[in-house]
Automatic annotation (TrEMBL):
One of its GO terms (molecular function) is kinase activity. Pathway: Amino-acid biosynthesis; L-threonine biosynthesis; L-threonine from L-aspartate: step 4/5. Belongs to the pseudomonas-type ThrB family. This is Homoserine kinase. The gene is thrB.
Length: 323
């Protein structure tokens, strides 16, 4: 979280009452994220722990309904995730300090900093199940970080600052954007997808995946794009971005065992992985070059995804997705 929202105790008590809960809970801040404020609420032995989230921009209030309905849809199918709890009046969120706020179950475990192939296999299986279960979810949300949005972010950045952050990156960005605009694959199977399934959005309790969090970028997009984004996020060593062939094979094999990829999807994966890198580069460059006002966490350096973009532009990147 960048800044913790200050909570008013009376307002919080009224908020909890809307869920039929007392305010008699121990509140512990959850560190780790960059945008929202999260606390663990512990009500003692009588009821399970919950997470209180106060949502910060960039998501528009009008788009929260899609995000929460998608989570509840997957939850109803039995997938492991922290879906928002319903309030006494049937709504899924209220407000605290003038911002959208919600409660969800506390998932046990920790995130995998450098996921191994067993963890990636579980991720691949869950991702495929999410995509299959999205088939009968009808609401739509256009991608808030689609190609035009990322291009607009990058256009607003000083090219010199981009070059200072990562030498040579401006030219790589220009050619990847132009290729993506010219060759974006049409007609791929699409539906509601998570679109931000980084290892820090998936918890493991011991060896078992306990659930996915942070659905705020979920939207309607090709399933293969979500797979490419997850691949770019999971299959490299943190920091130096060395490709992990074993992790990649485990993720892709587990995915394909549950949801077969069409030949069109497989062929599109290298380009979609490059676009996934562009999307992460856009926000990481923006936050690196102009950190949000008041931010108390260090922005993530863009170099990692510059290296991954280069990987997916080469032969090894193309081979990573071969059957
Ligand atoms: N339902 C949950 N159960 C257990 N822990 C949670 C839950 N929700 C959030 N957390 C913890 O809080 C941390 C921050 O949450 P989250 O990732 O939602 O914040 P964020 O600000 O949206 O982060 P980012 O934008 O970087 O993904 C997570 O890394 C996780 O450890
Ligand atoms: N998952 C993104 C942050 C959300 O946009 C990143 O690691 O840069």
């Amino acid at each position: 979280m960048a800044v913790f929202t200050a909570l008013d105790e009376d307002e919080l008590a009224a908020f909890l009452q809307a869920y039929g809960l007392s305010s008699d809970a121990t509140r512990t801040p959850l560190e780790g994220g960059v945008s929202n404020s999260n606390w663990c609420l512990d009500f003692g032995i009588l009821s399970p722990a919950l997470v209180l989230t106060v949502i910060e921009p960039p998501i528009a209030r009008s788009e929260l309904d899609f995000v929460f309905a998608f989570q509840r849809h997957l939850d109803a199918k039995g997938l492991p995730l922290a879906a928002p709890l319903g309030r006494s009046d049937g709504s899924l969120w209220g407000t605290l300090a003038g911002k959208p706020a919600l409660l969800s179950p506390f998932l046990p475990g920790t995130v995998a900093v450098a996921p191994d192939s067993r963890q990636a296999g579980q991720m691949g299986e869950l991702l495929a199940r999410m995509h299959l279960d999205a088939a009968d979810f009808t609401p739509r949300r256009s991608n808030p970080m689609g190609l035009p949005d990322m291009a607009a972010i990058v256009r607003r950045l000083d090219p010199l600052a981009i070059e200072t952050a990562v030498p040579g990156l401006a030219a790589d960005l220009a050619s990847a954007f132009s290729e993506a605009l010219d060759d974006w694959p049409q007609g791929l199977p699409a539906g509601a997808v998570h679109c931000d399934l980084f290892p820090d959005n998936v918890l493991f309790a011991g060896p078992r995946l306990s659930g996915a969090i942070d659905f705020y970028f979920s939207c309607t997009a090709p399933f293969a794009y979500d797979l490419a984004m997850t691949h770019a996020a999971w299959c490299f060593t943190p920091g130096d971005s060395v490709f992990r062939e074993d992790v990649s094979a485990a993720l892709l094999d587990a995915y394909a065992r549950s949801r077969a990829l069409s030949s069109g999807e497989r062929a599109a994966l290298p380009l979609l992985a490059r676009v996934a890198c562009l999307r992460i580069l856009a926000t990481r460059l923006r936050d690196w070059i102009s950190p949000p006002e008041g931010a108390s966490v260090t922005a993530k350096h863009p170099a990692e995804f510059a290296q991954r973009l280069r990987f997916y532009s080469g032969d090894r990147g193309a081979r990573a997705f071969a059957p």
